[in-house]
Amino acid sequence: MKKQTLIYNGKSKQIFATESQNFIIMTYKDDETAYFGVKKSVIPNKGMLNNKISALIFKYLEKNGIYTHFVEQLDESEQLCRRATTLPLEFIVRNIIAGSLSRRLDIEEGTVPEQPIYEICLKSDVLRDPMINRYHVEGLGIAKEETLNQILVILKKINELLKNLLKKSHIDLIDFKVEFGFDTEGNLMLIDEISPDTARFWDSESHEHLDRDLFRRDLGDVETAYKEVLARLENVLQNG
Length: 240
Ligand code: TMP
Known about the structure:
Layout: E1 6-9, E2 13-17, E3 23-28, E4 31-34, E5 39-42, H1 46-63, E6 70-75, E7 78-82, E8 85-86, E9 89-94, H2 99-105, E10 117-122, E11 131-132, H3 134-139, H4 145-168, E12 171-182, E13 188-191, E14 199-203, H5 213-216, H6 222-238
Antiparallel strand pairs: 1-2, 2-3, 3-7, 4-5, 6-7, 8-12, 9-10, 9-12, 10-11, 12-13, 12-14
Helix pairs in contact: 1-6
Bound molecules: thymidine-5'-phosphate.
């Protein structure tokens, strides 16, 4: 399948139409941003690393019963994916308090909540992805109650699967963000990416960051950390 017109040019990815109505090609960029594009840089190989990491994770989730848009990795920075009608929402799952939740409620980073915390944000760069709740989503007609219930079940399953996978890679899953859409037949599916750009990964022993906080907070070399994440995942998923 070949890339045709550019249909979306995002901060970290581009989406191209293909000759089929049912598929798109997603290209990962080396561009890194934080704070809604206020901080910008180019990280060598980041696109390739996130493409490979997300492909491995999506294949693992598919194998374990999660329906996703991922079809196949085409090359170093491209994936073939099912075309989706996207929900303009970001779903965040937090196993450990960090980042914006730590700041907003003044809770020390690293605090373990009694149970995972789920958040919904409206995807809008202009509004800075405001947090909303399920009543906004349903009341404003963004998604139906039934869809949200289905998403909550899938989020719990993804969280358990990811925690297990990462634990074997000696990584703690602090939090992550995912997005959903519908395929051309109206089936709900996981879309976008799961990578160190969209999740917080801490080394299980040292608690060092292996994620985008390295860039956000100038904590260390992003490329080295993402390479380490890929190597650990390959080790667990490809070598047993
Ligand atoms: P936060 O602590 O900044 O709200 O982020 C929570 C998690 O969600 C973290 O793993 C980063 C991820 N995330 C994104 O990938 N994109 C976003 O736009 C936001 C707000 C968070």
